[in-house]
Amino acid sequence: MPFLGQDWRSPGWSWIKTEDGWKRCESWSRDLDRENNPCNVSHSIILNSDDEEIFSNEEQKYTSKKRKKDHFRNDTNTQCFYREKWIYVHKESTRERHGYCTLGEAFNRLDFSSAIQDIRRFTYVVKLLQLIAKSQLTSLSGVAQKNYFNILDKIVQKVLDDHQNPRLIKDLLQDLSSTLCILIRGVGKSVLVGNINIWICRLETILRWQQQLQNLQVTKQVNDGLTLSDLPLHMLNNILYRFSDGWDIVTLGQVTPTLSVLSEDRQLWKRLCQYHFAEQQFCRHLILSEKGHVEWKLMYFALQKHYPPREQYGDTLHFCRHCSILFWKDSGHPCTAADPDSCFMPVSPQHFIDLFKF
């Protein structure tokens, strides 16, 4: 028989008796599918004619909306999509707006699922996820946590499919697994949103992703056309000078003996050090060879351990100083300034985190 709660805050649930005991049965209305809702939630409709609930029109409308909201919250594979691709960043209550904007709310609203499909934004999103994993994971709400791991799942699957940027994802998963191990071991000492068993399952998922990336084998493509080895030396050298990451140069140098020689060029590593670090930092970590020459390659990796390298992204989020709105530049936002372009400011991943620190 159905059980209906008497608490005004909840309409109660319908329960059915099975061999394993009583289980909750959610009753959904088909009319909910035709409602204009910005969240595209896919769900199964469960109808039970024997347990029909009798409410007034107003109570029944409230019941349907609440059950749909609860179903959305319990669906771990669901991500909420918004029509607007921007968010107003406010840190205090005003007469027009109450409350403040949180990191989790911004993470839900800025459509990172679509951003990872754009090669210009992929590195930016990965770096942002890495910063959140290091220090801001516990500040995310329950829905934001689900979105975080759903986006991370899409990133891992994308890397496994197209074999691009595996090193970035390995670093992200390493930082995330370290953070989760600390949080799980110190449960009770810090605020951890969600059940401890959920976090343990997430840690097991991360370990499985790490194993899949470790076993990733890049298939050799058979192509009878022009290859990298057929290019002249000056063009190969020009390609190496376009890299901004030292590990990419080392990896490319392992392809052919010619690239190996070009990747050891002292001038190449000197330019890379000058691009990322200041001259004062060189003096503090100067490395000389036996002949008295500066070992620029060793200096680059030594400096990288002490100082953050210069960040470079194809596309970033932007912040409008006039409207206090965070948005993707391609999507735009309803700016009221006379010259909107002069108000736009690119936002680095670290700046994104700092915007929501109170």
Automatic annotation (TrEMBL):
Pathway: Protein modification; protein ubiquitination
Any GO CC annotation of this UniProt entry: nucleus
Gene Ontology biological-process entries: protein ubiquitination
Coiled coil (residue ranges): none
UniProt-listed CDD domains: F-box_FBXO25
Transmembrane parts of this sequence: none
PANTHER family: F-BOX ONLY PROTEIN 25, LD30288P
Main localization (coarse): nucleus
InterPro entries in UniProt: F-box-like_dom_sf, FBX25/32
SUPFAM superfamilies per UniProt: F-box domain (SSF81383)
Keyword hit for Nucleus: yes
Subcellular location: Nucleus
Keywords: Nucleus, Ubl conjugation pathway
Function: Substrate-recognition component of the SCF (SKP1-CUL1-F-box protein)-type E3 ubiquitin ligase complex. May play a role in accumulation of expanded polyglutamine (polyQ) protein huntingtin (HTT).
Name of protein: F-box only protein 25
